Amino acid sequence: MFRALARASVALGPQAAGWVRNMASHQLLVAPPKALLKPLSIPNRLLLGPGPSNLAPRILVAGGLQMIGHMHKEMFQIMDEIKQGIQYVFQTKNPLTLAISGSGHCALEAALFNLLEPGDSFLVGANGIWGQRAADIGERIGAQVHPMIKDPGGHYTLQDVEEGLARHKPVLLFLTQGESSSGVLQPLDGYGALCHRYQCLLLVDSVASLGGVPIYMDQQGIDVLYSGSQKVLNAPPGTSLISFSDKAKNKIYSRKTKPVSFYLDMKWLANIWGCDDQPRIYHHTTPVISLYSLRESLALMAEQMRAFLRLSRPREASHPALPCRARGVPSAHPGPGEELEAAPGGHGVPAGAPAGAGPAALREGPSDPAAHCHHGGRSHWLQLERHRQLRHGPF
User: Where are the transmembrane segments (predicted)?
Assistant: First the structure.
């Protein structure tokens, strides 16, 4: 078998071929896994959960393009284009804007690791699992965490936030725009200005909402905004988007201690992404192919927007949430505290699905994909499942 592998190694790269020949000359105690000797088989499935989402053909093609080096000038050009795309979908001019080599959860950690130091007061909107996780990470850093707890489905008013700001005098407030564990939309207008009156930075999670509902980072006074690649943006999971205002950047660059993570140290990441006007130096190997796909996703958002510029309301017409309609996402934009139906994970489920059945009820339900797209009103089953997630964690 191993002689056959050695002969077949000509199809591999020179390093891999050498490894196969070397392994073939020794007695091995572990046989090749039988499953890996078969072709990869992936079901053709319509994805309507919180993410990942189905990929557009153009994004699939990008994933098959030729590899280049992560420090090649062509890769730096792609990274610059990604940065511009993030600035567009975030509606920001922040120079410190980049993609993280990791999921949206990694972007959350990047924000908190760089903004918080031991002893800092941290105010957290905890109306779902993402606020709970932000609080957990803050505690691990050594911050003084003050959760504002809401029942699932609740959102925070300006009065709620001001009471927390006055009481705890935090350096940072965390809010989730689209809480995927409860499906609620958090309003953002006025919250940035309120935080700034109390010398507090505003950090917003838009992983489940970016591209599905409007967000205006600069206009809304958001200091740090992050999102994921795999939801409305329709890119593969594994990369995330983040941007820091000048106020947030000053907080990072005036730290008394180093961030607890070297991998997510924003000073290093700012350099590799060309955000500090210095020659780029190696920090880590970026996921080249994933960045191809992210670039194409952002390009699609920019291109599809041109079809909506004729709408009568200029602010909404120019916002990158609208292309989600062209991708088959429901067009309803929920009001404050309403169910987040315009983004992955905010849909209802088939009538009669049993409580606790989980996403299997969707996967194994009607064969007609249209039957999975019900989003008319709140489902009792979905509400029970959301409460279960908050108690025991997501699926």
Answer: none
Model confidence at 181: pLDDT above 60 = yes
- Domain total for the chain? 2
Which residue's structure tokens are 């290093």?
268
Which of 311, 343, 313, 312 has its CA nearest to residue 330? 343
Q: Which tens digits make up the pLDDT trace of 255-314? A: 999 999 999 999 999 999 999 999 999 999 999 999 999 999 999 999 887 666 645 455
Is residue 76 domain-resident?
Answer: yes
Is the domain of 106 the same as that of 243?
A: yes
State the chain's mean pLDDT as an integer: 82
Q: Are residues 277 and 351 in the same domain?
A: no
Same domain, 285 and 351: no
**Which domain range does residue 374 map to?**
347-395
Q: Examine residue 284 and state whether it is found in any structural domain, yes or no.
A: yes
Is the whole-model pTM more than 0.70?
yes
Whole-number Å distance between alpha carbons of 350 and 347? 10
Question: Considering the domain boundaries, does residue 313 fall inside one?
Answer: no
- CATH code, domain with 258: 3.40.640.10
